[in-house]
């Protein structure tokens, strides 16, 4: 590794804007973010938009939204790879002038014919350009591409922090194209030039790029640039051990927001998916940033487990500050194009979050458990709730209403009042709690009736009891 120990850490996330932000790409972004934050470095964003036919502004915006929901804040301004085409081409020109690249006049038809013949003869289809060593004076006046003059002897060593030392024989490398015949740079060149120009010290990316590293290293060496530290992480597989795809469920980050998972829970789960810190499963962002390292990233693909994600999401919902939880709930409603909360609903939610958030794994579950807060009057009572409100129960609750008018509104006082009412009717408080719960929530399952009364307040509690009369 050529990086000096005192060099500030710079990582980057470099997605292609050709679709939604994939969950695997999100984990790559997370690993880069965590590593940079642990070392007090920079986490940069580069949009690799060189594929003009497939790159779209809508996909770019989806990437921004996905990163924002996950809370992965990048440093500085996002870089457009396409905007740097002139710089990429200039580097290719420098390599050409220094003899590390050459002009190749072989046509596509010639290359295709060579490969077809090689396949028929069962020999290597690796194209060896006949123009590699032809002098400039012997060049024809014809279109050409610029190719890297890759070494053909020896080997290239990739010192990878996850995969270990990976050795590629140089006779397995082709003279890859750097500039197309129209003068436009190819992706492989652009990546290296951008990483160098941005000062990237650590390239943390999927292991599907491992073979690319051997070819990209040749550009670093030709230009005399320091190599970054490589860390190629395994891909995410579905529960069946196959590459994560639509058949396994949601694959895009925004889909997970729309399903209502906690953003903190998603960060926690993705961090743990392929990386470990002992047996710790649940941890905070601060802990993840202080613990994260490259040494404890596994070499094998990690399997996505939706049950574990839901469990971690629920733990984070329970631990989240009430105001922050309300903010995330509002984001979920906006993402699913649901009606926003009124000011009154927001106020009630903040008052009652303590009694609902510990039992919800997702935002839809949080909304469901908060229904006593969010439903407008008169409540739409469930069938089982209607059964709990028989004539005898309603009669008893009518006695409770005037007593609540002047009650001290504390849990102790309310419990005592209901208990005394139950005793006066020679029944248990639990028997009275069922119809009271139905009247206050419209359901037979809900938070404690006393929690609901405290959250709803005197006027709303009495109003709901009067509604069932």
Count of domain modules:
3
**Alpha-carbon Rg, integer:** 31 Å
Structural class: mainly alpha
Summarize the amount of helix as a percent range: 40-55%
Low-pLDDT stretches are none
> What is the total tally of β strands?
12
Helix segment count? 19
Give the overall average pLDDT: 94
- Fraction of residues in β-strands: 5-15%
Largest sheet: 3 strands, parallel
In the CATH hierarchy, the third-tier topology of the largest domain is known as Rossmann fold
Anisotropy-based shape: elongated
CATH architecture label name of the largest domain: 3-Layer(aba) Sandwich
* CATH superfamily (homologous) name of the largest domain: HUPs
| Spatial sequence of strands, sheet with the most strands | 1-2-3
Describe the secondary-structure layout.
Layout: E1 10-13, H1 23-38, E2 42-47, H2 57-70, E3 79-80, H3 85-98, E4 101-104, H4 108-120, E5 145-148, E6 155-160, E7 164-169, E8 177-179, H5 187-197, E9 202-206, H6 210-223, E10 229-233, E11 236-237, H7 253-259, H8 263-272, H9 285-291, E12 302-303, H10 306-319, H11 322-335, H12 343-352, H13 363-369, H14 371-374, H15 383-388, H16 391-405, H17 411-424, H18 429-441, H19 449-467
Parallel strand pairs: 1-2, 2-3, 9-10, 11-12
Antiparallel strand pairs: 4-5, 5-8, 6-7
Helix pairs in contact: 1-9, 3-5, 5-6, 8-10, 12-19, 16-17, 16-19, 17-18, 18-19
Protein name: Glutamate--tRNA ligase
Binding site for ATP: 246
Motif ('HIGH' region): 15-25
